[in-house]
Structure formats: structure tokens, C-alpha cells
Design a protein that fits this description.
single chain; about 500 residues; mainly beta; 18-stranded antiparallel barrel; three-stranded antiparallel beta sheet; about 65% strand
């Protein structure tokens, strides 16, 4: 009996250790910051099928919180509180095939948004509906993503679909409401030859948003401005035109070359173009603006995977945005003739950086140095806002085996962004007080210096068939204007 007891105990101990070791290696593979080297390549679904050797599924709930003492960007507000539920999975069906997916639901609030009554500000600015009152905005979001990849001898094939639905609204005047639907489809292929994976992928995107503002109070309404860039408005259709519709989308071409052995030079090229059409929806449908975006993102680097991982890579991200305004004639009916189209707004954005990452499977450190520039212009009357920053960041990550069943993931990051050049040209003498104040504040925060520090700790505890985890992230940002930001995120969930 004693011999059987000892043998059973030994076997159980070995099985527990093997399970813990397997689970730990899976977590380290999926959570490592080394994956930042490969994330751009994974946009091609055919190459995403080679991303991981192991499968991992996470189900978790999280609360994401951010608070600024004064809004850095008024159109985005002073912060948010966003509880959410997530499901993420990457499954290896075999050595040749993999599937992945993501689903999430978010229901929370953004605080003190001003000069913006439109959802998806980053996508649609400066062509937004706006007012100087603003307020807290409720937000509800659904996201669904799924992809599949397989291998046929030397060929890699894959497809992916992404869908997002947003509902943002305010239950006090001005009562904005934005409903967004966005669908993205990707197909990709790869071929292994001469020691490299050569990949190409195509993406198509369709975007729609219905946006309106209502007032219920009897004391009157505040004007809604049809913004066109750098504090300008389409005067003729501002004021009482508060229902608009956006539709658009675009295409993207992705090209990749990466070494099969994970050692050598690699290249990523992303060419994309998008258009967003804005029209007023009242008793008639009237097109007033079109926003165009053309971009190129290039990554060139060298990497080596072994006992010590090493990667050095340079990135160049350039985007050209332009805004067209339609000159509309007068009409006694609901049909308005279009007299001309003028390109009035231009914005050239550049971001270039050099990054080095070094480490082993248990720890990694990275350093990044770069320059970014934002050059905005409005043709007439002439307006210009140009700001450039030099930035740097240091990041470290450590996996620590706290016990047989417990794995801790710890991370630290610090960054600094300092103004290198700035220029502003504005016809302040001909601007209203409200618009002049807005532009001056935008300029003040655009050229400011920012220091950011953050820390992360995650604990994974392995049970017999599943794992449970808790993750806490905290950060603090200091702005040279004299303001600051605090942020925190808490997540609890299971893995299997």
C-alpha cells in the first residue's frame, strides 16, 4: 500500500508540474511583448495562422478607467469609465490550420466631451457635428471578429471578418446620438520560398453612421456647427441642421516578407485609402463634405529568435488627409444643385521611429526613439497649425514563477514626448470668442510635453482543467501645461 501510495503521489506531482509547465509556456508565448514585433504581419490572416504554436482562450470581465484634471483633447473628454466583457481565442486545429476570434460588449460613459457631437472622432475629424456645451456621453459597443487560416503545402491561405456596432448618446441637452456600423473583410495568401514567407492580403471596409442632436428644453437650443477644420464651420448649414449621415469605407493592401526560421531581415508594407461622405438628413438629403485619407506604413527590421531574442526595426507611418467642401446653390424645392467642390482642409501626419527589443522567454526589454509631426492647413482664410514632437520610451516585462501553479507577469513602461517645433497662423481678429478660445487651447495642448509612466501585474493560477487570472494596470501622465491624467484597468477571468 505504501509503495502504491508513493508511486501515485509521484505520478500526480509529475502530472501537475507538466500541466503547469505547459500552461506557463502557453501564457508566456501569448502574453510576451515580443509579439509587438510580429503584430503588423498578423494583419494578413494567412500569416496569422502561424502566429502561435499553442492554443489559448480567455474569458474575462474588465473595468477601464481614465480621468484627466482638464481635458487634453476637448473632443475626447476628460476621461471615461468603461466596464466590458471579453472573449478571446486562438485555437490550433492542427499543424496546418488555426482559427481565432474575439467578442466583446462594452457599456460605460465618457466624461465632459465638448466641441464634438459625433461618434468616432479619430476617424472623422475634422468633419464632425459640434457644439460648445457638450457633456457626459453614454457608450455601448459590440465587437465580433473571427478568422481562419490553413496551409496547402507551401501555400498559406486565410480569411478574417471584423464587425463593430457603436451606440453613443446623451440623455440631457444637447442630446446627441450616434449609431455606427462598420464591417471589415480581409483575405490573404502566403508562399514559402527561399527561406521566406511572402505574404499579400487585401482588406475592404464599409462604414456607416447616423448622427443627430435633439433638444427637449423649452428655453431654446444651442447652435450645432458643421465643422470643417481648424475652427472653421460650414456657416450656411450650421445652427439648426442637426441630423447628418456618414457613409464610406476604404481598402488596404498588405505586403510582407518574413524569414521562416525567425532569423533575418523582414519587411511590412501597408497601403491604404479611405473616404467618408457627410450629408445632411432633414427633409432632404444634401451632401456637404468628403474626407479622404491615404496612408502608408512601412516596417523594416532584423530579428533573431533563440535563447536570446533580439529585434531591431524602423517604422515609417505617413497619412495624408484632405477635406472637400461642396458648394451648394439655392433652390425653391428640395433639390439643391452642386456648383463646385473645393479642397479646403489638408493634414499631413508623419511618425517615424527606431525600436530595439531584447530578452529571453522569461524577460524582455525594449527601447524606442522617434519623431512625429502633424501639419494642418486650411486654405482660405489661411489657417495653419503645425506641431512636431520627439519621443522616447522604455518598457520591460518579467515572467516570474511564484509557485507550482502561479505565474506572475510584471511590466513597467515609461515614455516622454517633447515638443521640437510648432507654428500657428490664425485670423483671430475675424474669429468669434468661442472659436478663438477653442483653437488657442488646442494649440496649447498640442505643443505640450508629456511624461507617462505605467505598471502592470497579472497573476495566473492553474487549476486542474482551467486557469484563473487577475490583472491590474495603472498609469500616470503629466502634461507641461500643468494638468495630469490617471488611469487604471482591472480584469478578472479564466483561461483554458
Amino acid at each position: 500500500m505504501n509503495r502504491q501510495y508513493y508511486i501515485t503521489s509521484i505520478l500526480l506531482t509529475i502530472s501537475v508540474q507538466l500541466f503547469a509547465t505547459s500552461a506557463d509556456s502557453t501564457l508566456m508565448e501569448h502574453l510576451s511583448i515580443w509579439n509587438t514585433v510580429k503584430q503588423a504581419t498578423w494583419q494578413n490572416p494567412a500569416l496569422h495562422g502561424t502566429a502561435f504554436k499553442s492554443s489559448l482562450t480567455e474569458l474575462y470581465a474588465e473595468v477601464d478607467w481614465q480621468k484627466q484634471s482638464k481635458a487634453f483633447i476637448q473632443e475626447k473628454g476628460k476621461g471615461f469609465l468603461l466596464p466590458a466583457a471579453h472573449a478571446d481565442t486562438y485555437l490550433r486545429l492542427s499543424e496546418r490550420a488555426a482559427v481565432w476570434g474575439h467578442a466583446s460588449y462594452t457599456n460605460g460613459k465618457h466624461y465632459d466631451i465638448c466641441w464634438n457631437s459625433t461618434s468616432d472622432y479619430d476617424i472623422l475629424q475634422p468633419h464632425i457635428l459640434a457644439d460648445s456645451v457638450g457633456g457626459d456621453t453614454n457608450r455601448e459597443r459590440y465587437v465580433f471578429e473571427g478568422g481562419y487560416a490553413t496551409r496547402l503545402r507551401r501555400w498559406l491561405l486565410g480569411a478574417e471578418m471584423l464587425f463593430r456596432a457603436d451606440h453613443e448618446y446623451r440623455d440631457v441637452d444637447p442630446r446627441m446620438r450616434g449609431v455606427v456600423n462598420e464591417l471589415t473583410l480581409r483575405i490573404g495568401a502566403g508562399y514559402e520560398a527561399m527561406g521566406y514567407r511572402w505574404g499579400a492580403a487585401f482588406e475592404g471596409n464599409v462604414y456607416k453612421q447616423s448622427n443627430d442632436v435633439e433638444f427637449y428644453r423649452e428655453l431654446g437650443v444651442s447652435p450645432e456647427y458643421q465643422m470643417t477644420g481648424l475652427g472653421t464651420e460650414y456657416v450656411r448649414f450650421s445652427g439648426d441642421k442637426r441630423s447628418i449621415h456618414y457613409e464610406g469605407g476604404g481598402a488596404r493592401l498588405l505586403l510582407d516578407a518574413e524569414p521562416v526560421s525567425n532569423q533575418g531581415l523582414y519587411v511590412h508594407l501597408d497601403l491604404n485609402e479611405h473616404r467618408y461622405h457627410r450629408q445632411i438628413v432633414e427633409n432632404y438629403t444634401l451632401p456637404i463634405t468628403d474626407l479622404y485619407s491615404q496612408g502608408v506604413n512601412t516596417i523594416i527590421g532584423w530579428k533573431r529568435v533563440g535563447k536570446q531574442h533580439l529585434a531591431i526595426y524602423a517604422t515609417l507611418d505617413y497619412e495624408k488627409r484632405s477635406g472637400d467642401e461642396h458648394i451648394i446653390g439655392s433652390s425653391a424645392s428640395t433639390a439643391f444643385p452642386e456648383l463646385a467642390t473645393l479642397t479646403m482642409y489638408k493634414d499631413n501626419r508623419l511618425n517615424t521611429s527606431l525600436t530595439a527589443l531584447y530578452g529571453t522567454g522569461k524577460w524582455q526589454v525594449s527601447a524606442c526613439f522617434g519623431y512625429q509631426n502633424d501639419d494642418q492647413k486650411y486654405v482660405y482664410p489661411e489657417r495653419k497649425l503645425k506641431v512636431g514632437h520627439i519621443y522616447g520610451a522604455l518598457e520591460g516585462q518579467l515572467f516570474w514563477k511564484a509557485s507550482e501553479r502561479m505565474l506572475l507577469t510584471c511590466g513597467l513602461k515609461a515614455s516622454y514626448r517633447g515638443c521640437a517645433n510648432d507654428e500657428i497662423v490664425m485670423p483671430f481678429a475675424n474669429m468669434t470668442t468661442a472659436f478663438a478660445t477653442k483653437i488657442n487651447r488646442q494649440y496649447e495642448y498640442s505643443k505640450a510635453n508629456y511624461t507617462d509612466v505605467s505598471a502592470r501585474i497579472r497573476g495566473d493560477y492553474q487549476l486542474k482543467s482551467i486557469g484563473i487570472f487577475a490583472e491590474l494596470v495603472g498609469g500616470y501622465t503629466s502634461c507641461s501645461v500643468g494638468e495630469h491624467q490617471a488611469a487604471a484597468r482591472l480584469a478578472l477571468g479564466v483561461t483554458f
